[in-house]
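Incident review: delayed structure delivery

Summary: a single-chain prediction request sat in the queue longer than the usual turnaround. Root cause was a stuck worker, restarted by the on-call engineer. No data loss occurred. The affected request and its eventual output are reproduced below so the record is complete for anyone auditing the incident later.

Affected input:
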Amino acid sequence: MPTRALSDEEPQSTASLPLSIDRKFRPWRYSVSHSELRLRSVDPVSVPDVVEVSFYGVVGMKLKTVYRPLTLGLAEPAQAEEMLRFSDVEESRSSRVHCLALKSDNGDGWVACLSYSIWSHPRDADGSAPRHRDSVLILRR
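Output delivered after worker restart:
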């Protein structure tokens, strides 16, 4: 995992796609009103951090209930075309949409969105919910 801490200056991405994370991820939250989807690692409390993948401006998705490990990558051109068609994205707007493939040992999925980010958040002292201060940006587009 990257070690760059969040500071007052704009954090920079420290990784690129494809990116594999050997954790167990589940869909955590979807907000229709904000078109936002979050996947979160759900590893045992003994793991010191929680990894959260957030997708913004979601126009389409196909999800599994569990990804382990999670590999996030750009969709192949034919798959991206299928995503855009499924999501009813107008051709004039398609260049703004990120078509991402979610791959795992137990099945694949995809997300078509306008932007995304991946953060590592340290857990609270009791091992529960993640703290957002001292978070580390892994990737943002």
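Verification: The helical segments are 77-86.
Action items: add queue-age alerting; document worker restart procedure.
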